[in-house]
Design a protein that fits this description.
aminoacyl-trna synthetase, ATP binding, about 30% helix, EC 6.1.1.22, protein biosynthesis, cytoplasm, alpha+beta, about 450 residues, five-stranded mixed β-barrel, 16 strands, BirA Bifunctional Protein, domain 2, OB fold (Dihydrolipoamide Acetyltransferase, E2P)
Length: about 450
């Protein structure tokens, strides 16, 4: 097997016979030899290769090599006299798998805007920044699974096609097998989804939470980690139509246990990424956002502050800041309010709890004051809300009344109500968008640059 360049840069020793495969970043021809930088995606840095003109097939290979070409190079590691690199590869043989025409290859050695790179998503992963993003994304995903698995959580694969709108947001993608040119109609002239594939209207899921609650009622502690979809026609740096969600659900758990798990989770994931991708995180700190490392250390080492929504409103009303959006009890906190609390007032992450019932979802447990629910949002400097969760309503009568008060079709949730009829327990959970987490970690300004193939309005090219 060829060697990974990351392993060679960290542990390779002079006189080691090695072979690397990757893509050429740069080629610099000298009179008697050529410098070639090869990168295989395993690390930010590439490996410098020196090919001398006495190498068999030298002239032919060098003529075919340009930026973007795919190569395999075998040889011996030697100490590098160049500044900033410990070793380099003295080539003994070069195989060119695929050439790249320098006249048409779009990733020449110069700076490209992120907007331009989104138009070539099939090639942008070869750049330094996007390569670093996707290595951090991989490490974060690994950390998510490790955190829950070592605590005995069961990973649950919840359905992508669903008939329920968990959040009640109504911004759903419809899944249909009907003839769109001539769909069947009801007597009222509406599309008759009763004749569709599932016998009812179906959607792409916005959340796996309700199904995770089902599984938690048998396995105690579960989590989901999969794609979710929102048909929100927003062309902003914060929205995607397809994104990944992490959603743990814990039986025999209240809001306090939920908060403690959320705080431990964030600390664990950040710590793993810093340990696994130090070069990439240093790059983000230097080139993208100079508070990336400080923010990570703040998450890992700070004890999260905890306040109620009512206390948060009072603090915002007392501040001398003029906000774009009004501050008043009963209104949801906007990003500017959340960031003020986390960045300027507390200067660290905080958890806000007990929100007004009117601005939260139907499944959140009603407090004794009947005005607030046991909800929580984790707010972080620079991004605002990063996690949202709650203790769930486990009392059948209270949940039924809440569903009816909201005018939701109670018959569609018969199975959800059954969980309260047969062995109900206090339970809680939270959710966070994985892309928001990666964006927060890396300092990337646009969420479209932390997922390989972003799905946004009028954009599904790759």
């Amino acid at each position: 097997m060829p060697n990974r360049i990351l392993d060679l840069l960290r542990q390779g020793q002079p006189n080691d016979a090695v072979s690397v495969r990757g893509w050429v970043r740069t080629k610099r021809e000298q009179k008697e030899f050529t410098f070639i930088e090869v990168n295989d995606g395993s690390s930010m840095a590439g490996l410098q290769v020196v090919a001398n003109q006495d190498m068999p097939g030298y002239a032919e290979a060098i003529a075919r090599i340009n930026t973007g070409a795919a190569v395999e190079i075998s040889g011996v590691l030697v100490e590098s006299p160049a500044k900033g690199q410990r070793i380099e590869l003295r080539a003994e043989s070069v195989t060119v798998y695929g050439e790249a025409d320098p006249e048409t290859y779009p990733l020449q050695k110069k700076r490209h805007s992120f907007e331009f790179l989104r138009t070539i998503a099939h090639l942008r992963s070869r750049t330094n920044t996007l390569g670093a993003v996707f290595r951090v994304r991989n490490a974060a995903a690994q950390a998510v699974h490790h955190f829950f698995q070592e605590r005995g959580f069961l990973w649950v694969h919840t359905p992508i096609i669903t008939a329920s709108d968990c959040e009640g947001a109504g911004e759903l993608f419809t899944v249909t097998n009907l003839d769109l040119k001539n769909p069947p109609k009801t007597k009222e002239g509406e599309v008759d989804f009763g004749q569709d594939f599932f016998g009812k209207r179906a959607y792409l899921t916005v959340s796996g939470q309700l199904e995770a609650e089902i599984m938690a009622m048998a396995f105690s502690n579960v989590y989901t980690f999969g794609p979710t979809f929102r048909a929100e026609n927003s062309n902003t740096s914060r929205h995607l139509a397809e994104f990944w969600m992490i959603e743990p659900e814990m039986a025999f758990c209240d809001l306090l246990g939920n908060m403690e798990l959320a705080e431990s989770f964030l600390k664990s994931v950040f710590k793993h990424v810093l340990e696994t991708c130090p070069e990439d995180m240093a790059f983000f700190n230097e080139r993208i956002e100079n508070t990336v490392l400080e923010t990570a250390e703040n998450i890992i080492n700070s004890e999260f502050a905890r306040i109620t929504y009512t206390e948060a409103i009072a603090l915002l009303e007392k501040s001398d800041r003029t906000f774009e959006y009004p501050v008043s009890w009963g209104l949801d906190l906007q990003s500017e309010h959340e960031r003020y609390l986390a960045e300027e007032l507390f200067k660290k992450p905080l958890i806000v709890t007990d929100y007004p019932v009117e601005i939260k979802a139907f499944y959140m447990r009603l407090n004794d004051d009947e005005k607030t629910v046991r909800a929580m949002d984790v707010l972080a400097p620079r991004i605002g809300e990063i996690i949202g969760g709650s203790q769930r309503e486990e009392r059948l009568d209270v949940l039924e009344k809440r569903i009816q008060d909201l005018g939701m079709p109670i018959e569609d949730l018969w199975w959800y109500l059954d969980l309260r009829r047969f062995g109900t327990v206090p339970h809680a959970g939270f959710g966070l968008g994985f892309e928001r987490l990666v964006q927060f970690m890396t300092g990337m300004q646009n969420i479209r640059d932390v997922i390989p193939f972003p799905r946004t309005p009028l954009s599904a090219e790759f």
